Amino acid sequence: MEENREVIVMVDDDLTNLNVARNNLSGVYSIVTVPSGAKLFNLLDKITPALILLDIEMPEMNGYEVLKKLKENGNTAHIPVIFLTAKIDPASEIEGLNLGAVDYITKPFSRDLLIKRINLHLLIEKQKKELLNYNLSLESEVGKQTQAVLELQNAIIQIIAELVECRDSVTGGHIGRTQHYITLLVDFLIEHDIYADEIAGWDTNLFAMSSQLHDVGKITIRDDILRKPGRLTDEEYEEIKSHTISGLDIIKRIEENTTESEFLVYAAALAGSHHERWDGTGYPNGLKGIQIPLQGRIMALVDVYDALTNDRPYKEALTHEEAVDIIKEGNGTHFDPLIANVFLMHEKEFKDAKVMPKQTLEQNEEVQPTLETISDIICTRTGNQSGSSERVRNYLEVLVDALRENEHFKEEISSWNTELFLMSAQIHDIGKLGVSGRLLNKDAGFTSIEFDSMKNHVDYGVQVIQKLKSQIDHMNVLNHAEALTGSHHERWDGSGYPNGLKGYGIPLQGRIMAVVDVYDALTSDRPHRKKKTHEEAVEIIRSGSGSHFDPGIVNTFLENEELFRKIKSNENIN
To answer: What is the spatial distance between Cα 292 and Cα 310, in angstroms, rounded to a whole number?
Structure first.
């Protein structure tokens, strides 16, 4: 057989017909001839031809019977079959096509016509295989991209959750541990057929990811209470308990501003019910037994186990054995007895559990809903309106598009992935999650000490972004985030912070964000002042050209300030 030629098998009981086919086609294909259906199937154990030419009228096993047998075998059903026969009546042709033949050619045949018909069906078969491979590849890629989104969302939410936890001096490892414990406990519950039917309806990946937001309401609690090393007063304890209601409110507000909130459904159940107790003595609603959402009953156990076995401001860590004894005591009072029993059966696995491994993923641009969620959490923490990130994103898009037309900025901006820049900008103030809530919501001017503390949000934000990038390989979605976070408070004349950068020494991302950030701050209410009009904000930016702001960016802003007014007014700018 010629190595680069398609293998064609001719099946006919007439040796003359086989010789004619071989002579006509051997210069084009690798032709193999067999005199019967039985010998064809013996041959197919050794080779898989590209196409079969099949006679109908043969002894022992006719062509129709051969074709039926071919189609019944998964290894041969895909091979295209052309009937090559002297039968010329339409009924015979229809019967052959109904059985799965791709074509029906009558003898005697034209060599050129036969070759063209064979080539046509070989091409069709090739295209079918390419389409099948493409679809399989596409399905695989979609699966990879979906997993990448989950991993990226998980990592970003982990950072936010760690910011919440670090405010009460709890190590960030709490987040990774409880997420891993939840995954273990859910697997064990399914293994023992405990609540397995209900859990079967969950997306357990999203559930585990959402568990990281169970204490997000601590954002609203005063730092002196969160970090208090001694026993809380009754009044302080009541304020601590309010974090469950605050967390639920935060998550519900975020849900209202995103269309992709499945993981937030789990987060709401976790945030609102993980301090309820099986006997009804928990908070905030005094729910009892199975009134408590299953998510909260699961979280209650792993949260207590992790709290007991790790240091807290008010206590030192207990041993694993001591924690297990406490959970035994709480079985049926604090904890759902079915869940507690499963935990106790597998307590050694919890003792040996490690923090979830480092994430790895390729660039993915479908994490927008997660970044919006983080931005909304920042807004809630700082007293801004939830959803303002979309407005800031629109301002930036207008300004970046306009600057791209400016020869001075065109080359650098054209090298950016604009979508990644806009996405990263939504978390430029992420460091404010590490600033005291008292400062963020102060309704009067800052003292110099307070202002220095407020300025720390920039360095803190850079540390967060760097940590996030270190946890995920190829974190392209945050390519611009570090520059935006670290330089949007620098000033053109060098009088900004944190590094006193000057002029073109300030990254372009930060110089653009500085204008947009100031415009949005001026035209929005803040705890310490009322918003200014669009015209007032424009004049302040105009007067800051060359001192606070890059004059080239200000000029572009002034040329497009009416678009900013329309965005602010929620008008259609198209």
So the answer is: 26
DSSP H or E stretch at residue 11: strand 7-11
User: pLDDT of 69-83, one tens digit each?
Assistant: 999 998 899 999 999
Give me the residue label for tokens 């050694």.
348
In this structure, what DSSP letter does residue 574 have? -
Report the pLDDT value the prediction gives residue 453, as an integer from 0 to 100.
81
Q: In the chain, what is the straight-line distance between the N-terminal and C-terminal CA atoms, in Å?
A: 65
| Strand-strand pairing, 30-34 and 103-106 | unpaired
Strands of 91-154 (E only): list them.
103-106
Neighbour-count burial for 466-495, b at 16+ CB within 10 Å, e otherwise = eebbebbeebbbbbbbbbbbbbbbbbbeee
The Cα 243–Cα 239 span in angstroms is 7
What are the tens digits of pLDDT across the range 272-313? 999 999 999 999 999 999 999 999 999 999 999 998 998 876
Q: What residues contact residue 409 under an 8 Å CB cut-off, 6+ apart?
A: 403, 508, 552, 553, 556
Element at 84 (helix H, strand E): strand 81-85
Nearest partner of 209 among 186, 180, 188, judged by Cα? 180
> pLDDT per residue over 464-480, tens digit each?
787 766 655 445 557 78
Q: What is the pTM of this model?
A: 0.49
